[in-house]
Amino acid sequence: SRQVEVDTDTTLGGGHEGSFKLSQAVGVPVPTTTELHRCQHSASLPKFCVAVGTNDAGALIEQWDGTTWSIAAVPASAGAQLSGVSCASPAFCVATGSTGTSASSAALIEQWDGTSWSVATTPAGTSTSLTGVSCPSTSFCVAVGGQDAVADQTLVEQWDGTSWSTVPSPNPGTASNALSGVSCIGPSFCAAVGYQMTGSPFVQSDQRRLAELWDGHTWRAASPGDPAGSGLGSVSCTSSSACTAVGGVVQSGNTAVQLVDSWNGSAWSPQPVPGDQTFTGLNGVACTAPSACTAVGAVSAYANPPYPSALVVSTVERSSTPGYWEIAADGTIFPFDNPFFGGAAPPWPELMSPAVGMATDSATGGYWEVATDGKVAAFNAPSYGSMGGSKLSQPVVGIAATPTGNGYWLVAADGGIFAFGDAAFYGSMGGTELSQPVVGIAATPTG
To answer: Which sign does the torsion angle of CA 280, 172, 178, 395 carry?
Structure first.
């Protein structure tokens, strides 16, 4: 089963020294294919905790009563994924994510009334998702995420106790912007974090961390700026002058390290993080006081060979020179004698479903990653489209690039083929009864 870790000791202080210690692991009654993303727990609700995530059937919600975990009944919604949750009381919780029941994904909000979960109406349209939410009271909540109907932009939804409405938010990045976490102390102050990209949307070094503040009337950008390749995944505020945000940064030499920023009411400043930081990243933080915060994330010992934190699902050679890449199920890329342009692993969740393959762009030297839901993430390579948000009869299992590098094919487990860019469609096994599922695809030298 999965494990949820509970620790009431101080582990990280925003602007203050803290110490890391192992926390107690509590068993969760779910299969190993399940991902639990967020757990809302606080001293004011000591016997009530809600964790949300995704399993093979869709959205997953589990609840803690102080003794045991139980799986909650979730409204049926094909392709639903939950990544954020916040509870104002045991009788009011909000979970956020996305669903893909039509030709495009759409933001998803589910609410708990103390008895059952129900899907709330949100004005967010298609090609949207909500990754974080904060509810300081039953009459005020803020959910954040992104939208890419026209261009990658931030998305903020606000609850007034009766309905949800879309609130304008800044987009300082000229290429793309997205918010991944939010923390509100009340209707007059919230902090949201994520990432922005200025320049090329495909180059990791053009990415910077993004922070935005709410004053009760409008959102304004208040970003920490450099370093290059940085992003923030979560934030927690105990007052309007005390917030801690966590994330990660990909440095030169393909070294990823964790990142902690502290807000003092007027500016953000980086904070020291103890321990060996090589190939680490933080994607969650919770604070009960300015000097009492707990941050969580992942670590992967990167050596030769590397030891990825998720199962390696594919190895891809570089066509022009020696070397190859390995891709793990969480989207992490491991280069061997090859350039690194980024990956879809947290805290940059370009892929919301497990990665299953990658292909190289012969024109730019970059690459594409593809996930089981058909979404394609491009790194130093142009995007020609994907099946992300589309309803699929079977999951996507592979990707192959055309010889020119100006397109690619996706293949699903039922043999269905999806062509993008200059990739020609020559037929498929979709709709044909197969004795075994298809597991991959390859292109001929002539395309």
So the answer is: negative
Residue pair 248/282 in contact by the 8 Å Cβ criterion: yes
- Helix, strand, coil percentages, rounded to 5, for the chain: 0, 50, 50
SS3 state of residue 294:
strand
Q: Show the tokens assigned to 231.
A: 């992003």
Tokens of 258: 């964790």
Q: What is the DSSP code (8-state) at residue 229? A: T
Cα dihedral 7/69/109/295 (nearest 10):
10
In 10 A of CB 110, how many CB atoms? Answer: 24
**Concatenated DSSP letters of 370-399:** EETTS-EEEESS------TTS--SS-EEEE
Quote the longest CA-to-CA distance of the chain: 64
Residues in contact with 318: Cβ distance below 8 Å, sequence separation at least 6, in sequence order: 324, 325, 338, 360, 365
Query: Is residue 205 classed as helix, strand or coil in its secondary structure?
Result: helix
Determine the residue type at 181: G
Residue bearing the bigger pLDDT, 251 or 122: 122
Which helix (H) or strand (E) element contains residue 407?
Answer: strand 407-412
| Distance from the first to the final alpha carbon of the chain | 44
In 198-278, the DSSP E strands lie at 207-214, 219-221, 230-239, 242-251, 255-263, 268-270
Q: Provide the mean pLDDT of the chain.
A: 77
**Nearest 5 degrees, angle CA 48-CA 52-CA 56?**
140
Q: Are 256 and 281 in contact (CB under 8 A)?
A: yes
Quick check: pTM over 0.70? no
Phi, psi of 206 (to 5 degrees): -85, 0
Tokens of 358: 């990658």
- Tokens 């589990």 belong to 62
Number of helices (H), then strands (E), belonging to the chain: the values are: 0, 33
* Least confident piece of the model among 140-154, 306-320, 343-357: 306-320
**CA 415, CA 298: separation in Å to the nearest integer?**
35
Q: Using an 8 Å Cβ cutoff, are 367 and 357 in contact?
A: no
Most confident of 126-130, 198-202, 271-275: 126-130
Among candidate residues 44, 89, 49, 88, the one with its CA nearest the CA of residue 72: 49
Provide the token pair at 201: 């949307």
107 Cβ contact partners less than 8 Å away, ≥ 6 residues apart: 96, 97, 98, 122, 124, 128, 129, 130, 143, 145, 155, 157
